[in-house]
Amino acid sequence: MKIFSKLIVAICLITTIITQAQNNYPQNYFRNPLNIPMQLAANFGAVRANHFHMGLDLRTNSQENLSVVAAADGYVSRIKVERYGFGNAVYITHPNGYTTVYAHLNKYFDKLDEYVKERQYKEEKWEQDITFQPDQFPVTKGQLIALSGNTGGSAGPHLHFEIRNTKTEECLNPLLFGFAIPDSVAPIISGLYWYDRRFSTYEPGANGVSVKKAGSTYTADIVRVNSPTISFGIKAVDKANQGFNLGIYQAELLMDGKLIYGFSIDKVSYDDTRYLNGCIDYTKFIRDKIGIQHLSELPGMKLQNYSIPNLSGIINLQDEDIHNIEIVLKDVKGNTSRLITKVQFNKEGGRVSSTAKAVLPNDGKTIASENAEIGFSKNAVYDAVNFNMYEKPDADAASNAIVLNSPYIPVHDNYTLKIRPNRKLTKEEKDKTVISLNYGSDTDVVKGKWNGDQADGQFNRLGTAKLIVDNSLPSVSSGWKDGAVINGGTLLLKGNTKIGDIVSFRAELDGKWLRFARIKNDFIYVFDEKCPKGSGEHTLKVTTVNTAGNTNTQTFTFQR
């Protein structure tokens, strides 16, 4: 009976927290930014690669160019135009202390679009980040501000929508502002995991426990552990009524009726969003595509306003008795799922070796091999990492390949990597040297900065690095033959590089700068008054520069 009473008290406490969070924000002040019902493709706090999802992804029925309207009165305070990230975005500042953000847009409303275009031509620069005064572009609630799209780091047509605290720029959970989005589906639990917390959560890693659903409750067989100090992780999604896998809003962990850990995702700043890597089993997420959220604190996880203060989630089993475990998951609407199980400590030993090269949270460290050195800040890791660094020959590179532990272990901030070449390089070769870091799913390439006989670079992923002398030229390829008549509405150029990226692109039409938008590796010009139909033959000169600094100029001709 006492355990039941404690459980009721804990649940009431969490319910109070939800209610207070919702009451702290104005309800129904902001309207739906689309003129179709709000349907979620992703919610605030959903797990992404190296960051929390910072807003709502609103479905646009797989279409582009839907009307996007101001969620409330205010003024356009900022716009961004960028290749990745938000693509084209509008920021509206409101008089009640909040700013709304609308991203992945195709086009701004006419007056704003004209202003941005003039700025781009004046500066001869497509990417922009412009701020405005309150009297430049005032807007009213429901006013058209843009057309939806699929620009920037978008994988399909949708509208990304955020609400921020104007003063702190923290992103707030929009679902706490009273939007009418039906949701009667409780979170779905599909896995339970435990970790031996005498050691790092990375080594030996997660131990899976089967979960089954019994009526409205999830259960798992008794969890027998061989460590007196453990923590739990949960694999779960929130389906809402939409069918998409949404992120978990709130979780609580109770042992013998006592609350020992809890988190809720109410607000996060972009400065802190990478702490997501300390809230999940990063190895499982990157290597196995399995999303497990820790129900405990990692020593290097410093995200504010996430977990309940003074509750670590670390379980110290002082005996071999059977203890009751309950995990409670909730969405913003209060729909609740529970997992009930038991845990017992069996004294059967179990050890994990450590090395002298352990990188510890809150303690910077430099590690060196024969020809390389890596320097970590005190904020680099979320949990202890037994760092394994070694070299192996690479016939195609200007250095040995430097293996930096594993791409399945996260780092929080940039580290500095120094590599010596495997032969003496000329000044010209040094000028063309890049550092390539392969982390399995992709490769980051940066220009090497020479410091004596070492090339330096900064990265925030682990993997295998090497020096490459890159003499290759970047290029673009057109979809038309020189001199062809172009009757369509756009010119498309596809970017090509052997190593690294195209870091600079400039197009001139008959000697004058022409505005091409960049969508990932494509460059697109939409025909306008700069090149109208019937204007005859034109010469397009395109200059590209790659990461190594190699420059290529190409000339194309066409007719309109």
TrEMBL record:
Signal peptide: 1-21
Record keywords, A-Z: Signal
Molecular function GO terms recorded: metalloendopeptidase activity
SUPFAM superfamilies noted in UniProt: Duplicated hybrid motif (SSF51261)
Occurrences of domain M23ase beta-sheet core (ranges): 52-120, 138-167
InterPro entries: Cell_wall_metabolism_enzyme, Dup_hybrid_motif, M23ase_b-sheet_dom
PANTHER family to which the protein is assigned, alphabetical: M23 FAMILY METALLOPEPTIDASE, PEPTIDASE-RELATED
Name used for this protein in its record: M23 family metallopeptidase
Species of provenance: Chryseobacterium joostei
